[in-house]
Design a protein that fits this description.
Two copies of one chain form a homodimer. Chain A has about 350 residues and is α/β, with parallel strands linked by helices. Chain A has nine helices and 16 strands. The mean pLDDT of chain A is about 95.
Chain lengths: ~350, ~350
Amino acid sequence: MSDTLREWRLAERPHGEPDADCFELRERDVPEPDANELLIRVNYLSVDPYMRGRMRDTESYAEPWAVGDVLKGGIVGEVTKSESDRYDAGDLVTGRGTWGDYSVMDADDVVPVDPTIADLPAYLGVLGMPGRTAYFGLLNVGDPKPGDTVVVSGAAGAVGSVVGQIAKLNGCRVVGFAGTAEKTEWLTEDLGFDAAINYKATDDYGAALAEAAPDGVDVYFDNVGGPITDAVFTKLNLDARVAVCGQIAHYNDEDMPTGPRKLPLLIATRATVEGLLVHDYATRFGEARDRLTTWVADGDIRHRETVVDGLEQAPDAFMGLFSGDNIGKQVVRVSTPSS
Amino acid sequence: MSDTLREWRLAERPHGEPDADCFELRERDVPEPDANELLIRVNYLSVDPYMRGRMRDTESYAEPWAVGDVLKGGIVGEVTKSESDRYDAGDLVTGRGTWGDYSVMDADDVVPVDPTIADLPAYLGVLGMPGRTAYFGLLNVGDPKPGDTVVVSGAAGAVGSVVGQIAKLNGCRVVGFAGTAEKTEWLTEDLGFDAAINYKATDDYGAALAEAAPDGVDVYFDNVGGPITDAVFTKLNLDARVAVCGQIAHYNDEDMPTGPRKLPLLIATRATVEGLLVHDYATRFGEARDRLTTWVADGDIRHRETVVDGLEQAPDAFMGLFSGDNIGKQVVRVSTPSS
């Protein structure tokens, strides 16, 4: 073990699209864990679109990061020093850590990882926060019924790819929007989506949707916002449900974005549009973990991770989320597990 | 009884704001009621914003009116000929009739009216469809809790004025938006609203709302849309509920209106936005009728109607809804009850 670690800090707040100037890699001594804490060598680090919100200087559901703060996010890693009876050096765990070579975390804030069920990166995707977001968002907010048509934007992302597969397990017709032919092929060929629309290959999302979802849209799981969402809203069925999980098209907007007004469309359809945050379901995370683990172990849900190598690549991996570089979950490999 | 009646037909579809050319008054012979039908002399006729939607050539929750169709709407009137055992000539009834001197209606489609509880026009407002809309929309979609702040747009209209008073009965702080000083004074002085904002007397709806609703907005009952709604959405509290009842600001738009995008605001608040149509609650209309009748009889809910005289004024009364001419329910007096 080296005596120093590297970790990424917020150097300045982004204006519009984040760039390299927003991030600063600093070294410091590896800290010692206090009572009940673990020193964890980070193997994989998660970058997620929601982190863009924490870079803003506005209070939201989470405190904004201060300039100078170490960036935080989901990690999978190996315990190297334990001050807890429940974990030993060598144990693999996951939880919310830091963008660094090492993270000190409270033993209460991590859960064990079983690499025989899925590779470590999956614990940041389908078996991590994105998978739980898909699970609760689709089932609780979307409330899909067999035969419903479920449309997902950002369908080839970490959340969307799981949403579509859970919808298929619930007997729905599933249509995904994604931004490359490789992504749409993955959705229909490997994940069982009934149709996928490459939105970069068509100008007329409404026409593409009319073909892919001829019976209209009963559930829309929105990760994206913008013109895709505008088109979907014009196809909502009676009593449709819209789960607003993400709006990545707008995260880098400096001013309030404008677009077609949607409320007039809700009266005739009596559709429900609801914002969604996975932390509201924290008391039920065990349920989601069990179900998703079973589905993954049984091959009912497939997953994919896009891995970039090296902690120094973390900002690029994060910024790549906004141009859709990832298929499935985007992670950063910080180190190789020792075992 | 005259041998002929006058009735308004749709002469042409409006483009943008309806004008007199859209309406045609024709005469025809007074028809005879068939079995189980009633011939009703119309005393009061309701004009409502939703009728603008039926003038469009697009399918919505109701069939569009065809050019040449007699215009339909709520009426209160007196039975002059009955082919039903349940009603006699002279009985006062209400139901969905026509914009005419007489309406032939099925006896199953009317309910009796008791003029000792409220004057006849109230049966087209607080004790009619608008009152029921307020009742179900606020209680079922808005779901107000004591201490909640409830904001109503179009607050001095037929629906909004009842929404605010039911919210007060539920222990809420109530703030209304209306378009004249006379209206806001009615809301705060007579109806018990905690605050009312004359949106024509301020440029900054957000600032006005911050003052009137310092604890933010838990329930928003929207009859209007447009910039008022834009401002309210920026003040929604965690788990806020928005009932989209009407969007009168947009009913005359020919093209899809644009405005600030609202979905990004829903994630942090986890707010729910739901379209509302009173007909979905048809099986529970008796409950609403009983409750509203009691509240009106006890003086817990006050009401007001704006009455114009003469069937020939019906199109003007309808068009006046879009400029906010009415306080409370807008009705047209077609004839005077005989008793």
